[in-house]
Amino acid sequence: MKAQRKDMCTQLLERYNAEGEAFLQRILTREESWIHHYDPECKAQSMECRHKTSPSPRKFKVVASARKVLFTVFWDMEGVVHMKFLEQGQTEL
Predict the structure, then answer these.
(1) Which of 77, 72, 76, 73 lies closest to 28, judged by CA?
(2) How far is it, in rounded angstroms, from Cα 35 to Cα 65?
(3) Of the candidates 8, 73, 7, the residue with the CA atom closest to the CA atom of residue 35
(4) Which GO MF term does the entry hold, naming one (predicted)?
(5) How would you class 41 by CB atoms within 10 Å of its CB: exposed for 0-12, middle for 13-18, buried for 19 or more?
(6) What's the pLDDT tens digit per position in 28-70?
(7) Sign of CA dihedral 8, 9, 12, 14
(8) I need a labelling partner for 45 at 20 to 30 A (CA). Which of 29, 30, 36, 77 fits?
(9) Which among 8, 63, 74 is positioned nearest to 40, based on CA atoms?
(10) Coil, strand or helix: which one is 30?
């Protein structure tokens, strides 16, 4: 695999040397990641009035809900071109 990566990098470098900036402007990169989706409690909601000597309130562990979304982002040398959130079980079509 290292040899394949080296060969690919060499080819890309040769194309850059031949075509210059025009080659870089045509490159589009994609990244995707699964994101757990939940609505955290805001700071104002978690504040409560209490006396200094009273015990601190119980905080429940924040657990990500069963919902997760696939986040996909495309970018080029200028910046982000497209972003998309896709719920689990959905397809791009």
Answers:
(1) 76
(2) 11
(3) 73
(4) nucleic acid binding
(5) exposed
(6) 999 999 887 665 555 555 566 666 777 766 665 555 455 788 8
(7) negative
(8) 36
(9) 63
(10) strand
